[in-house]
Amino acid sequence: MKQIWIISKRELNSFFDSLLAYIMIIAFLGFSGFFTWLFGRDVFLVKQASLQSFFGVAYWTLFFFIPALTMRLIAEEKNIGTLELLLTKPVSDWQLVSAKFLSTLLLILISLALTLPYYKTVASIGPIDHGAVWSGYLGLILMSAAYISIGLFASSLTTNQIVAFLLALLIGIFFHLLFGLIAMNFQGIFGNVLSYLSLNTHYESIIRGVIDTKDIIYFLSVIFIGLFASEAILAKRNTSDN
How many other CB atoms sit within 10 Å of the CB of residue 19? Predict the structure, then answer.
């Protein structure tokens, strides 16, 4: 655990040292704030003390921002040759993958924490469903964690950051959109399977305030599979190098 935390802090510091963290946070707050308060189905248009508009905007914003954060995590290390140096130290593949996952998740948590004034402001406007708000934030955290694991896997496959970004988006769009759209055209077991694979199905359930065990299991499964696949790619590479 100590090694994971040390690497996580290094990665988190690198986000801020490269200004990537500041750009991401400012852009995220800008997009989410604009569409939550000023444009589209904003708070004033729906005339309800609700953050559903924010959760809808953040759902799409984070979908594009997370691949931009994860594309460099392993691809850059492989490209400049520091991955081999890092793995010669007493750090396992799983610890390395977990640390990079944790650092990115911490950055997302910081970004989401900075939106809590939205919650306070809306609550001052009128009666708000506090349970739905907190479950909405939980949905964003779980969704972000799932896409971070997918982004890590994409980054582990290549040394090119742009390729890693595009690959993460390609994989992510199936979970984000396509599984749900395809499921609408099928019935029976196949349709149900596709619907279950759709991340949007589980996200929508959680932000409505319904926290079901099957939704939690879904997100945890995607996270684990993404991290396990990333570790497997690193382990395979290390074996081939030997």
Answer: 9
